[in-house]
Amino acid sequence: MLLPNPHVNELEPCAHGGINYTELSESGVDPDTVIDFSVSCNPFGPPPSVREALLETTIDLYPDTEASQFKKALARKLDTHQENLIAGCGSTEIIRFVALAYLGLNDIVLIPQPTYGEYETACQMVGAQILHQRTRNDINFKLDIADTVKLIQQHKPKAIFLCNPNNPTGQYLLKEEIERIMSINKGVLLVIDEAYIGFTSSAWQSVDLINQGNVVIIRSLTKDYALAGLRLGYAIADKSIISTLKRVRPPWNVSSVAQAAGVAALNAYGYVEECTTKVRESKNYLTRELETLGLPTVSSQTNFFLVEVGQAREFRQALLKHGFLVRDCASFGLSQYIRLAPRTMLECQKLIAAIKETRIHRHAG
After folding, report:
1. How far is CA 291 from CA 162, 303, 355, in A?
2. What are the φ and ψ backbone dihedral angles of 51, each rounded to 5 degrees?
3. Tens digit of pLDDT for each residue in 288-304?
4. 179 and 308 housed in the same domain
5. What is the pTM assigned to this prediction?
6. In terms of residue numbers, what domain contains 288?
7. Cβ-based neighbour number of residue 183 at 10 Å
8. What residues contact residue 199 under an 8 Å CB cut-off, 6+ apart?
9. What CATH number corresponds to the domain at position 228?
10. Alpha-carbon gap, residue 279 to 199, rounded angstroms
C-alpha cells in the first residue's frame, strides 16, 4: 500500500472533551441522560433567535465562501474591517489554515504546555518541529514570560501558539506580557487563541494587536453562543495575513446554517453577558464545594478550571457511572487533574452530590 508522508504517518489523534458515543454504548450509558461538564461551552444554549434563523435558512444553494453577512455583523461588533476577518468551520480549522499557509518542514514552533492539543497536531501535519515550554503547577501553571523570551532568543521559532485564556489551566496573560513576547522577534508569527475570551474576567482589548506585528487572533462562537454542533469560528489579522489564509481555505468551508446562526448570535445583544453572570455563580459554587470536599481547585480567569483529584481517569469513570462527564486531563500531561466547566446551578448541585456519593463508596471500599 502507498505510505503517507512520514510526519503524517506519526500523527496521533488529539484527545478532546465531549461525549464519546462509542464509549457510552459499550458502557451501557444512555448519552441522552449524561450531563456534560467536560466541554467549556455556554451551558444555557444558543440565543432563541439562532433557532429561528436556522428554520429560515436556504440549504439548497452553496454557502457564501466569504461568509459576507457574518463578517459584516462581526466587523460591526469588533469595530474592525471585513478585510481583517476570515471565517472557519470552527476555530480549529483556522489553526490548520495558519499551519498550512505559514509553516513547513522543520520550522520551529513554540507551544507552551499544557495547552490545546490541536496546535501541535496542525504543526505536525506540515512537518514542523515543536518546541515545548512547560508551566508548573506550584505557580498555578502561569507562563514564565522571562523563560519564553529566552526560548525565543535561543531557538528563533517561526511561530508561537498562545491559548489565552489557556486551555486547560484557565490562566490569562496580560496585554503587556503579550507585547513583551512580540517585542523580542518582530518576524515571528504569534497566534493568539481567544476561544474562551467571552467568559474571561477583566478581559483586555486585543484586536488592535493586529496593527503591531505578525499576529493572528482566533476566536470561536462555539463557546460563547453554544454553537458546537454547527462549527463556527473566525480569525482577526492584518489584511495581508487574511489574504494568505484565504489561499489555503477550501471553498464553502462554513455552511449556510452556521453563517445564519452566527449573524443571529452576534445580534443577540447582551446574551453572552447575561449567561456569563450565571456561569460565574455556578463556578463559585463548584469551587467552594469542591474545596470543602478536600479537592483543591486551580485559580482560573475564565469559566473552566482544574481540580486535583488524584487518579483522574478513575475519578472520571466513577462519575460517568452516575451520569456525569468530566474532562480527564491525562492527555494534557496532568493525570491527577480533571477539568470542569460550570453548567446550570441545578446541574452543579447534582454533580457535587454525585461526587460525595462516589467518594463515600470509595472510602467504604
Report:
1. 29, 17, 12
2. -60, -40
3. 999 999 999 999 999 99
4. no
5. 0.95
6. 33-44+279-364
7. 12
8. 40, 223, 224, 276, 279, 302, 303
9. 3.40.640.10
10. 8
